[in-house]
Amino acid sequence: MSSDALWIERTGTGTYTGYNGRGASVLIGQVGGAGSFSPGELLKISLAGCTGLTVDAVLARRIGDNYAARIDVSGAKDAPSDTYPEITEEFALDLSALAESDRATLLKILHRAVEEHCTIGRTVTRGAKVTLSVVSS
């Protein structure tokens, strides 16, 4: 199996497990399901994860490899359109050791890096084409 293989398998009523070819798994369920992520939560977590990973090396170089960070991500579902019209990320990061000018420069670099290199964010904002085919197994 290819290390970039991705799939999900049904594990019960309203529950699935997602897998990758590297051996990782994630529980997927309906909103409010115990011990699982809903697809909407996974979308938001994926966006935040992409943001964090995109700027990780830059931050390590600028403020030290052991920096602490937290990205809170939220976005309410619009029921009539069945979409998330807005997703908000809040990046908590201690930049107090930096001079104000260095902090402003770093924030510009971080925003530019995310805008240019966060694949998930770019995919969401550009509206990816999704194709579904159903095959008989």
The whole-angstrom Rg is 18 Å
Count of separate structural domains: 2
CATH homologous superfamily title of the largest domain:
K homology (KH) domain
Order of helices and strands: EEEHEEHH
Q: Give the helix/strand class.
A: alpha+beta
Major β-sheet strand ordering: 1-2-3
The major sheet is characterized as: 3 strands, antiparallel
Shape: elongated
Distinct helical segment count:
3
Report the end-to-end length measured between terminal Cα atoms. 19 Å
**Secondary structure: helix percent:** 25-40%
Counting DSSP E segments of at least 2 residues, the number of strands comes to: 5
Pfam family, one: OsmC
Organism: Nakamurella antarctica
InterPro entries: KH_dom-like_a/b (IPR015946), OsmC/Ohr_fam (IPR003718), OsmC/Ohrsf (IPR036102)
Protein name: OsmC family peroxiredoxin
Structure write-up:
This protein folds into 2 domains: 1-37; 39-126, K homology (KH) domain (GMP Synthetase, Chain A, domain 3, 2-Layer Sandwich). 37% of the residues lie in helices and 22% in strands. The chain is built from 3 helices and 5 strands. The longest helix has 25 residues, at 39-63. The mean pLDDT is 95.
Lay out the secondary structure.
Blueprint: E1 6-12, E2 15-20, E3 25-29, H1 39-63, E4 69-74, E5 88-93, H2 100-117, H3 119-126
Antiparallel strand pairs: 1-2, 2-3, 4-5
Helix pairs in contact: 1-2
